[in-house]
Fold this protein.
Amino acid sequence: MRLSVAAIAICCGSALSAQVVDSGYNSYGYPGLIDIPGAFSRPDAELAFTTSHFRNQTRNTLTFQITPRLSGSFRYSLLYDIRPNPGGDVTDFRFDRSFSLHYRFLDEAGWMPAMAVGLNDFLGTGLYSSEYVVASKTITPRLQLTGGIGWGRLAGVSSFSNPLSIVSDRFDTRPDRGSDQGGLVRTNNWFRGDAALFGGVVWQATERLALAAEYSSDAYPNEDGSAFDRESPFNFGATYKLRPNVSLGVNYLYGSEIGAQITLATNPKDPRYFGGLDKAPPAVVPRGRGAVALGWGDLPGSRAAIRSKLEAALTAQGITLHGLQVETESARVEIENDTYPSSAQAIGRTARAMTAAMPDSVEIFTITTVVKGMSGSSVTLRRKDIEQLEHRLDNSWESYTRAVISTEREVGTPLSGVFPRFDYDLGPYLKPGLFDPDEPLRLDLGVELKASYEPAPGFVFSGRVRQKLAGNLDSSTRASTSVLEKVRSEAFLYDKADGPTLNELTGAYYFKPGNDLYGRVTAGYLEEMFGGVSAELLWKVPNSRVAWGIEANYVKQRDFDQQFGFRDYGVATGHASLYWDVGNGFHAQVDAGRYLAGDWGATLTIDREFKNGWKVGAFATLTDVSFDDFGEGSFDKGLKLTIPIGWLSGQPDRDRPTTVIRPVLRDGGARLNVTGRLYEEVRGTQGQDLRDSWGRFWR
Amino acid sequence: MGAVLAMRRILIFLCGLALGGCTQQATPDLRSQITPRLLASTTQPLLLVEAEMIQTAATLVQVANRDGTVDWRTGDNVSLTFRQGVVIGTRGLGDDLMTADVDGTVLMLAGRQPAEDYNRFASRLDGEYQTQFESFLCRNTGHEPVAFDSFGRTRQTTRITELCRNPDRSFENTYWVGSDGTMWKSRQWISPNVGYLTTERLVR
């Protein structure tokens, strides 16, 4: 007995000690010490932006801890006075994009160190191309040792012939970096050529301050002698944690330079306002009070009274009452959720409001969520359950298991007065332009007027007009060199429009041709650069992990002034899509078909989705356009980041803007941007998404 | 191409991401505004609640009372739900207490709990808005007569304390209970990020 207590103490002691050294990000923005990698990982789902600088080089890196073991980084480096080829001519500047992956394949345990393997710049122009295997071991709670072997750029100092040569002779030499377009996955280089050792130590001096010293095997072959003088392989650094998610670092690098670094981190799993600041929902009103007054003698009169009471209560919750049918023992209510990111929360609040508005005899509540005139799911609840479960400990799960969830094809006739409907919004906008080699960050700002008109369920006319007030997006002068139809590479010409621009003017019709089928037809000025007709059909069975869609469009390219005129180019474009909920929060989507430049191919998108609405994803498109014809980057790819406004503000808000970061925007693999694509419109009301959000039913 | 965000969004982004520079505004001292005269002219039940950690205070009115479960709300719809004076739910505070099973505490306060450990269960939403349960073992740690002044009126109460703990955390709740069972005052723990709430019954 005594022995087991001691064993627990030791186990917990070492578990705690492993957490004392606060391992951070290196100057390349991936897990490591100063310049070299380390074997640890950051907390799952952490998203960090690191800027590091020393003479003639600045690296900006976005790193996401994709899984507890795997992290991925996208880096944009501003390099001055470097030699793109070691020993070659010096270039004034080079703005370089690169990707990194870091995978921890062994956890620290007992005498075993943590171990990780990594790839740097396996997709860019290869300037930072290197691979490594690294081990880290916590020696005392405050002291961590790291040592590893590197190839490529990490084999610049005291290198030796590749130990992997034992496996095959092909590891002896590292091929040159081939094509200058970049973007190719250079597997033929990986772990080839000479290797070298690197290592370092981190000492956690205080809770906030960590000191590091390292021996770097990076000889800076492109920079040494022109960008800066590398005098020594030793680096020394201090990192101070200003706040839990802000770190500042100062480094003494390669015996000659002082560098600085800042890391800003956030984690989608840690909303600033926790579960949110949503105001309290209406209280459940038990029967036998209030509602008694509504006799059934005068049915039309009482119906009108029920409607006005329910409508007022729902409007106060930010929910639109779309339809209402009251029988003696049951009531059906159709709602449009304009406010809550979680469908379950809107349903819960509607059920509470119904307890106050419905006659005592009504025992069955059916609540249908209506999205753009299409029915999402219908949730049937017993009134007795709502009354009994309101304050029960496990009311979330109990109410979910007692709810009957179904789908219906038809939406009932909307209440009089709901349609037609007009809405508008006037506000500022901000439009950034990233990664132009002449000016890596540009920005426009102005005012935007949005308006929508819905004459009947499913019919939506919407428009968006912008007037730029200030900005420098129009200063780009880089003419498109594309050999394809210039469907996207002349985006900068659209930014030169001075007058008001018509960014969108469309009429759309949404409908359900079958029980699990959803349809959309949109016509008009669909996006900034194209107008035409777009039609989409989605087949989504509520509890299936897979959904299918097909979309066909005919569009013409719009005039650069973004008013009503068109240019000569027109194209039929469209895709067949597969949506797959892989599990563990990962979602995959494949879109195969014809792209805007007339090229044929497919796009693969992988997202990690969080149940609070965050998404972090990456996509890549391969088409029949050759890498040479595509130009810089070789193929279309990028990152996607969706941040729910409600996660940031704590207030209920359905808006969750998506930011797409593309290293370079060209004409191959370009897809039309149509608003209102069906999958994202429909899925939140159903199946797994509804279940995942059920914790908010009682909120 | 790129993200397009309205200005309000931009401000929220700056406040909400890593920088977190927007501090909460200071709360006015509500206590200094409450006077015996004001209370004498109030007829409906009134509760003063102060949250030390999130630095906010408000008066609440009773909006529902069903089978001993009482809902109190502020004017802007932040709500607290009590069973026999013990908090079983909050809404609108952020890291809210979604539900709680406080049967043990209620029995203890009524003097019907044997002098042993009893359970308390609670649920909250995590960062992905999923329901998480937490259980505690609690014990009555004090029982003494105390009189205190509440805006000019002396309340004769028994001050009862309980200590609740689990391997991750512990907290101590304090209840000032009148001889008729009225909860005149309390200091109760809600959640890690709301901390303690102090409640004081102003008008019964």
